[in-house]
Amino acid sequence: MPSGARVVATGSVVFALAPGATRMFEPANLAVASGVTSPSSAETAWTIAWRATDPLVASWYRQTTRTELGRGRWGTADLGGAGFELRNDGTANVVGELAYTIASR
After folding, report:
1. How many CB atoms are closer than 10 A to CB 8?
2. How far apart are CA 43 and CA 103, in angstroms?
3. Cα 65 to the chain's mean position, in Å?
4. Residue 1 clears pLDDT 90, i.e. is over it
């Protein structure tokens, strides 16, 4: 987290992805699901770690711009105010877990 950031939410989400499916994660939605008010997008800093039973394609996104981070069974990222998505390009169902920390700068 950036220096001086105040943690507002931590948690984890277990999910399943069918072949060809994508799951998007927004820090604002995760904060609300944790029972807290989300910081504004400009003030948001969040970090994630994920793992899955089979490789997934990971990307961060802002509005319509996507940047692929890589493909694998696990990963970590510091995302600022960007969203995060995982895509299953495989042929089998994949179960995964996303752990997150959301802060306000």
Report:
1. 20
2. 8
3. 16
4. no
Assigned domain for 22 exists: yes
Q: Please answer whether residues 89 and 49 qualify as being in contact, where contact means their C-beta atoms are separated by less than 8 angstroms.
A: no
Kindly report the CATH number assigned to the domain that includes residue 53.
2.60.120.10
Can you give the pLDDT at residue 33? 92
pTM for the complete prediction? 0.90
The amino acid that residue 29 corresponds to is N
pLDDT in tens, 40-79: 888 999 999 999 999 999 999 988 899 999 999 999 999 9
Q: Which residue has the tokens 């998007």?
A: 24
* Res 42: pLDDT: 83
Q: What values do phi and psi take at 80, rounded to 5?
A: 55, -130
Query: How far is residue 28's CA from residue 96's CA, in Å, rounded to a whole number?
Result: 20
Within-domain flag for 10: yes
1 located within any domain: no
DSSP character for 92? S
Interatomic CA distance for residues 83 and 80, integer angstroms: 9
